Amino acid sequence: MGLFSRWGKKKQAELTEGGVSPTDADSVVQEDGALSRDSESQSEAFSGEADQGVTADSDVIFDRSNGPYDSSEVDDLTSYIDAGSVLLPTPSEGEVRFSVDPRSGKVLGILYMVKDSVLQIQPFAAPKSSDLWGEILSQMHATIAQHGGRAKLVDGPLGQELRAFVPQQQPDGKVVAVPHRFVGVNGPRWMLQLAIYGAAVNDDSIAASLYDYARHIVVHRGSEPHPPSELLTIKVPQAAEEDGASQHLPQQAAGKHAATPRN
């Protein structure tokens, strides 16, 4: 299996419609409608009452000393997969894909896929002194609840995250609740938003490998001005472009590409 491939919206939808942009929280919900009873039975991992409202604790600051990193915090970036504003460790297994808008050609996100699970990666511009992720958490929770879903704020490996069941309409018209984990990390003038879906949502051992991969991500915001919540530019790596965005590359252990923070 190739390490890289392009992935248009149509193909992405075959697995799930995961992910939400901070500038459009409504995109987390696909259709209005009551949740399927069958889908409710999939909620074993998220048992308990859903939060009636979410207000992120602004006093809780996630310690990024073990990643994800800012490019200014890493001495050697040459071993990373260069995707523009995001530098990725080469995974020891799985595949890196790029979600591309077929009309504009704009890359909307990066998808690390392994073991029937997906880690969606999106970098956004953020103000210098603002808890952008905390603001997005509240918006997402309200939107999901508004459309009949349910969500709960928990302390996860990368800080405060939203574990949610998102209403999604199937081809047969039935609306089911698809489980997601929404994760975000605030950095210096950027916010890294992550979504986990697939088998890892209910399998902590698989989820742990996705969180570990996320910790080794490096964000390169650059000095260009960007309005808050704007998606930072993601580029398909040159090696992938030269082979039609599908390239067989040597698989190397992610640990060998772990960021080396500056002292």
Report what the structure shows.
By secondary structure, the chain is of the alpha+beta class. 16% of the residues lie in helices and 29% in strands. It has helices at residues 9-15, 37-40, 132-146, 204-215, 238-242; strands spanning 4-8, 69-70, 81-82, 86-88, 95-100, 107-114, 117-125, 150-156, 159-169, 175-187, 190-198, 218-219. Strands 1-5-6-7-11-10-9-8 form an eight-stranded mixed β-sheet, with helices on both faces. Strands 2-12-4-3 form a four-stranded mixed β-sheet, with no helix packed on it. Strand 8 (150-156) and strand 9 form a beta hairpin. It starts with a strand and ends in a 21-residue tail after the last helix. Residues 5-21, 23-50 and 243-263 have low confidence and may be disordered.
Short description:
16% of the residues lie in helices and 29% in strands.
Assign the structural class, choosing from mainly alpha, mainly beta, alpha/beta, alpha+beta, or little secondary structure: alpha+beta
Approximate shape: globular
Global mean pLDDT: 76
By DSSP (H or I, 4+ residues per run), the number of helices equals 5
Task: Note the beta-strand portion.
Answer: 25-35%
Strand neighbour order, sheet with most strands: 1-5-6-7-11-10-9-8
- Give the strand tally: 12
Return the string of H and E elements.
EHHEEEEEEHEEEEHEH
Low-pLDDT runs: 5-21, 23-50, 243-263
Radius of gyration: 18 Å
Question: In whole angstroms, how far apart are the ends?
Answer: 38 Å
